Amino acid sequence: MELKARRVGRSFVITVAAERIDAAVAIQFKDQVCEMTKSTKGRAILDMHQVMFVDSSGLGAIVSCMKQMPDGQALELATLNPAVAKVFALTRMDTVFAIHPDLDSAVNMQAG
Amino acid sequence: MTLAQLVQPKQQDVAPLFLRTGLASKPLSVRSALLQVERTLQRAGVPNRVQSSIGIALAEVLNNIVEHAYNGCGKNRISLSLWLSDTEVGIETRDNGKPLPIENLLFEQDWPEIDGPIECLPEGGFGWCIVQELADGVIYRRSDGENRLTLRFGLGAPIQ
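YS: structure for the whole thing
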């Protein structure tokens, strides 16, 4: 599974270059994101614009990544497609994660 | 009434089957089957809202068969049928794995608790809650060592 990491201003952005975060890739996804974020400082944003589908295994992997962020930092999400947003809404995980409508508004927002 | 009318069921009574397929009990096979279902629903003009509900719920059902009914052993088979009527989409899965625990079929299932601290957030346990929430009907039968699960999804308005 391909993840692209880059720094945009003061934010660390990880773009998920895959259409699905499902049971077939959940563990791999979690390990890769955790590896990328383990020494990050500042904001970390998961850019999901290419992701069309997340199942509960994928959701669990994203939650696990959030829990493993160093020093209790948050993992924020940007650009959830409708079917992905639906899973976050159903499980009320949309109340746990900061979810930005797009990457621009995510990186331009002052860290709270 | 002609003979043809006598032997031919009315459209509303029996919906024509429009996909029948089989898959191996592996996550990548589940993914392919879900994509096939997605394409089929798209071609049939099923509304996006219903398509996404079906995709999300069916993913949970198939993952559950792979992980729990078949214990992660990828060498087993799952069969999948889909039919469409004027008012709903029906889906049936069949497998020969372990029976589905009865608590999975209760309608008042508790969603995993998410209001605690971040380190206590649940990473699983959502699957059946999602299925119950999205499907308009869930019927389970166990017979001759086979699990048969039927999900129904209402279309809202008939497809033109």
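YS: worth flagging: Residues 30 and 62 of chain A are 7 Å apart (CA to CA).
IM: good catch. Also The mean pLDDT of chain A is 94.
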